[in-house]
Design brief:
With about 60 residues, the chain is an all-alpha fold. It contains three helices and no strands. One of its GO terms (molecular function) is aminoacyl-tRNA ligase activity.
């Protein structure tokens, strides 16, 4: 039985990144994610909690 996830003996993020990108290219993950949302309302993810900037904004 094949393993679902790859086990790494050492944690090398650059190699993990290459493996993930290769798998995404082979399975056309990004293209599928775009075509599956055709005709649906768009949505946006904002990175980070809004609290990080609140204190800085009030001190300006």
């Amino acid at each position: 039985m094949s393993k679902r996830f790859t086990e790494y003996s050492q944690f090398d993020l650059s190699q993990v990144n290459k493996d993930v990108l290769k798998k995404w290219d082979e399975n056309e993950v990004f293209a599928k994610s775009m075509t599956e949302r055709d005709g649906c309302p768009s949505y946006v993810f904002y990175e980070g909690p809004p609290r990080q900037m609140v204190c800085r904004v009030f001190t300006m």
